[in-house]
Amino acid sequence: MLLRAATSEGGQRVLCVAAVFVLMTLPPGLEGCCCRDPHRRGSDSSDHHDSSAASSEEDALASEDARIQRCVRTAAPGVLAAGGYENLAKVDACAARGTDALAGGAAPPAAADAVAACIDGQGLPPSVAPVAADFVDCVRRALT
Asked: Region labeled Disordered — which residues (predicted)?
């Protein structure tokens, strides 16, 4: 996640920025190379159907993840102003929990509930509470 780079310390920040740069400089056609199984040979029509279904599921998951990240980016300035990087890291961790729930097969509303429960359990200061509530509302709207 992009905001993890902003909240990380030292070398991890450089590593995250470098990873983004490498992904952006791949030649066309190689962007998805890491997702292919190099040991699998040949295909039949059922393989094509299975890969199309998997690709569709991956696209949906990526879209839902992007919507959660958009909510993090929208909330970030308010969280920083009200509570600093420590609280932004907590919000980002809750966003990751929602993304992990989606990747684990949870329905989008259940993932939104996981984000809300995480935010509730973070013990954010009162100054951050309104921004955190807006973040949770954004995630709920994004995933329903």
From this structure: 41-61
Looking at this protein, which amino acid is placed at residue 140? R
Is residue 114 within 8 A of residue 97, CB to CB? The reply is yes
Question: Which of 113, 65, 121 minimizes the C-alpha distance to 91?
Answer: 121
Distance CA 96, CA 119 (A): 11
Q: Tell me: the pLDDT tens digits for 43-82? A: 444 444 455 555 676 777 788 889 999 999 999 999 999 9
Q: Cα separations (Å) of 55 from 30, 69, 120, 129?
A: 16, 21, 34, 38
pTM for the whole structure: 0.61
Tokens (6 digits) for 54: 């998997």
Question: b/e per residue, 67-93, with b = 16+ CB within 10 A?
Answer: bbbebbeebbebbbebbeeebbbbbbe
* Amino acid letter for position 42: G
From residue 107, alpha-carbon distances to 33, 102, 114, 123, 127 in Å are 28, 7, 11, 26, 31
Number of residues that make up the chain: 144
